[in-house]
Design brief:
single chain, alpha+beta, 7-stranded mixed beta sheet, 39% helix
Length: 583
């Protein structure tokens, strides 16, 4: 042992700088390798927090090559009852609701904005919740809710959350009672750390038209998946599905898919799939890069310890080629991400600030609009149900058009939306203020919908008039192809209720305005109507950065890996030169 140590110290003294460079290169390689593997492990370990993840499946329905992740409640019930191999099944709303809640604290009302998912009580028998308070029956009672530990501490401190009341700023909605607190899920979980509220048992119970739910089930054994599907295909009467507006008339064209929970993270090209996603190809690329970096560092170490010129030149050549591949790949990915963030979208996002709204702001929307317009740099204000380019898909409508079913994504907007956002009308007319007071709504479809369904100007879809057409703007993210879509003005009634509720305000500023000062004014204006809530106020560039955050993270990893490879290569060559001079 002493001899080994003495030899090592001798080499270190003789080739001090070369040794330091090679050890530094090897250290950087291991750090880069570990960082990349953390990301790989994050994605490959998705939903590992679920004890029965391999036995939990989501059912999707496909027709004509187009798959949808949504079902209706009677269909889900029929599927659960079709086989004894299905131990339990549940449905949950395809989208969460961001609700303004308040709790009583020391005699005062304290407001909170929270994401709330409407779910059937059986969700607690399908998925595993690590309950800190309450039990697996916590959602059996009407108006009950379970909340994550982090939310319980934020709302109630160290007090027990059980039987606490969560009041909602919606007149017709009863307060929710906390019946359980669960331990927070890790970040790589399909189930988010949100509130899960018990679904009204009568909600769309026999409604074959409302395809707005995700359907999960747990099998006794994953191996029985195909037999469950085959049994359902043979015995289920598809009459109700075919009569709904979501599908055509061809029974044989309907295909059912059961995808296991771990595989959902990598499932693509399914409409209305709101689960977090990753790409197996991306993971393979990251995994390969991690090992390439280790190989480059290993070559440095080999060149340092063995003393052969031909072999050394071959290894250095490999290092150069591998580094060049990484650099080219990083440049390509960077350009692709730059394009997604800066490509024309078909609407004017410049000098635009967006703010998410709650019930209080909506109740005072006219006064809020006037306050915003009082700011000298504000050009105009408009509203929408959704934030353009912020997600893959939006609200799906299935409607009857001239006796045929059509499906499209629908974005309800205020009548001034197209004018403010600079969206042209290719045929027909724009929305008008008087459209907000009509008994029925009206549509402006994109050209994709017109071509796919043969839509005609001034015709009606279940009472709502087609008043015009717009270009195929990029209303969703660049991950998706342009789909049939319509902007929609509700008319006098929204879901049967008089008045309108919008989730997002778009504030257009004059060219050259100071957007930071503008965003500050928007926040102050929001606080003037509700000083107890926090509001998300962003520029449109920030919106796009969030939309493509996954791609940006991948870009950063590849770029850092490329720099690490270049540094290791330079350190190795420079260290070898120093070694040669010392000799």
């Amino acid at each position: 042992m002493k001899t080994i140590a003495r030899n090592f110290l001798s080499v270190l003294r003789r080739f001090k700088m070369a040794t330091i460079l090679n050890v530094l290169g090897l250290s950087i390689a291991f750090v880069a390798f570990m960082l990349i593997m953390i990301q790989v492990n994050y994605d490959l370990g998705f939903d590992s927090c679920q004890k029965n993840a391999g036995s939990i499946f989501r059912l999707d329905i496909e027709q004509g090559g187009s798959a949808k992740a949504i079902v209706c409640r009677p269909f889900a019930r029929a599927f659960i009852e079709s086989s004894p191999h299905i131990k339990e099944g549940c449905v949950m709303a395809a989208w969460s609701n961001n609700l303004l809640l308040y709790v009583e604290q020391n005699g005062k009302q304290v407001n909170y904005d929270e994401d709330v998912w409407s779910v059937s009580p059986e969700i607690m028998q399908v998925f595993h919740f690590d309950m800190l308070e309450g039990d697996a029956q916590s959602l059996d009672e009407p108006n009950s809710v379970i909340i994550p530990e982090s939310t319980a501490r934020r709302l109630f401190g160290n007090e027990s959350a059980i039987n606490k009341q969560l009041h909602v700023y919606i007149p017709q909605m009863a307060p929710m009672t906390v019946k359980g607190v669960y331990k927070d899920f890790p970040r790589n979980s399909s189930l988010k750390n949100s509130m899960y509220a018990s679904m009204n048992p009568k909600e769309s119970y026999d409604d074959w038209e409302n395809w707005g739910y995700l359907f999960f089930l747990r099998l006794d054994d994953p191996a029985n998946k195909e037999s469950v599907l085959e049994n359902f295909r043979k015995n289920f009467n598809t009459k109700e599905i075919l009569e709904s507006n979501l599908f055509g008339e061809d029974k044989d064209a309907i295909v059912y898919h059961l995808t296991s929970l771990p595989a959902l993270h990598f499932l693509t090209n399914v409409d209305f799939d709101t689960m977090p996603k990753a790409s197996r190809q991306t993971i393979f690329v990251l995994f390969s890069i991690a090992f390439i970096i280790l190989i480059i560092a290993g070559i440095n170490f080999t060149n340092f310890s063995r003393i052969g010129r031909r072999m050394r030149n071959m290894l250095i050549g490999f290092q150069l080629a591998a580094s060049l591949v990484l650099i080219v790949g990083a440049l390509f990915i960077h350009l692709q991400n730059y394009y997604m963030r800066h490509a024309p979208l078909g609407y004017d996002k410049n000098e635009t600030v967006v703010a998410h709204l709650n019930v209080k702001i909506n109740r005072n929307r006219e006064a809020f609009t006037n306050r915003l317009k009082a700011f000298a740099d504000v050009k105009d204000v408009t509203y929408s149900q959704f934030l353009l380019s912020s997600q893959k898909q939006y609200m799906g409508y299935g409607r009857d058009y001239n006796g045929k079913p059509i499906t499209f994504q629908c974005i309800p907007v205020s009548s001034s939306f197209l004018k403010v956002m600079g969206i042209e009308v290719t045929e027909g007319r724009d929305f008008r203020p008087e459209d907000d007071q009509k008994e029925t709504g009206c549509y402006l479809f994109n050209e994709k919908a017109r071509a796919e369904y043969g839509l005609k100007l001034n015709e009606k879809i279940e009472g709502a008039e087609i008043i015009g057409f717009v270009p195929d703007i990029k209303f969703a993210s660049f991950r998706q192809e342009v789909a049939p879509m319509a902007f929609y003005v509700w008319g006098k009634y929204q879901w049967g209720q008089e008045g309108h509720f919008y989730d997002v305000a778009y504030v257009k500023f004059k060219a050259g305005s100071d957007l930071r000062a503008g965003m500050k004014y928007v926040r102050e204006s929001l606080a003037g109507f509700d000083n107890e809530s926090s509001f998300d106020v962003r520029s449109y560039d920030e919106v796009l950065q969030q939309t493509y955050k996954q791609e940006s993270n991948f870009d950063s990893l590849i770029t850092l890996s490329s720099f690490a490879a270049i540094f290791i290569l330079i350190a190795g060559v420079f260290g070898r030169r120093l070694e040669g001079r010392r000799k």
